[in-house]
Amino acid sequence: MCGPPPRGIVSAMTTQTVVLDGVRAEYGAGARRVVALDGVSIGFAAGTFAAVMGPSGSGKSTLLHCAAGLDRPAAGSVAIDGVTLGGLGEDALTRLRRDRIGFVFQAFNLVSALTAEQNVALPLRLAGRRPAAADVAGALAAVGLGDRLRHRPSELSGGEQQRVAIARALVSRPAVVFADEPTGALDSVTSRHVLDLLRALVDEHGQTVVMVTHDPVAAARADRVVFLADGRIAAELPGPLAADAIAARAAHLETAPC
Ligand SMILES: Nc1ncnc2c1ncn2[C@@H]1O[C@H](COP(=O)(O)OP(=O)(O)OP(=O)(O)O)[C@@H](O)[C@H]1O
Known about the structure:
Elements lengths: L15 E12 L6 E12 L3 E5 L6 H8 L7 E6 L2 E2 L5 H11 E5 L10 H11 L6 H10 L15 H15 L3 E5 L7 H18 L2 E5 L3 H4 L4 E6 L2 E7 L4 H13 L3
Parallel strand pairs: 3-8, 3-9, 6-7, 7-8
Antiparallel strand pairs: 1-2, 1-4, 4-5, 9-10
Helix pairs in contact: 3-4, 3-5, 4-5, 5-6
């Protein structure tokens, strides 16, 4: 497939946790203007795991930021769990992000002043709920960090910080978890562990995961792979997925985007 599907089609589907319809995103102005997303329409169905791939600069992070309500698109719409983000004020958008979206991002992931268990409990506390200490400890144990409850992010490795973010998604159960290169800085054993945990969010808890990755092995753990090129959806591979087929398609798109 080259170019987006006709507008309106994805939004007509009812089981989509995330729907982007004709999303356009731009940076800068005048001669420095960059079109990062050029009319992207796509849905991410409830209880599925999608990987987003594409060359550097193709718009993957921008897509994640728009889908998660961190950036407002220049045109088009984004809906999470049936709620259209464009109609929300900043406070309502912040609440929706806190209540329904989980983030496994390397850049702004954990609160540095808080311990692992405080970070895991934070979204629920902000929502006025008091998670049981046993639930928090259980989630950290599930990601292999049962002995790191009182550690702060600076006292944890990159992989351990990613796993704290996943434990947070296990406890607060957001409808959708966005992960931006969650295995980018990890060794292969830790990567596999993090991908197992993301799979478990989908398979055991029915959550939706959207993961940006450059790694065909990581993408092969998803139910589908969406390829971006020049801010557009250039191709899609449905599962079951094999890493070498993903790598071949990615290499093809690098040389001939459409
Ligand atoms: N803050 C910004 N200001 C100006 N241009 C930006 C900004 N952020 C991204 N861009 C541009 O928007 C386009 C898409 O960037 P984006 O970060 O979404 O790509 P990406 O596919 O995630 O890349 P990578 O794989 O290298 O992380 C690129 O051309 C990039 O240079």
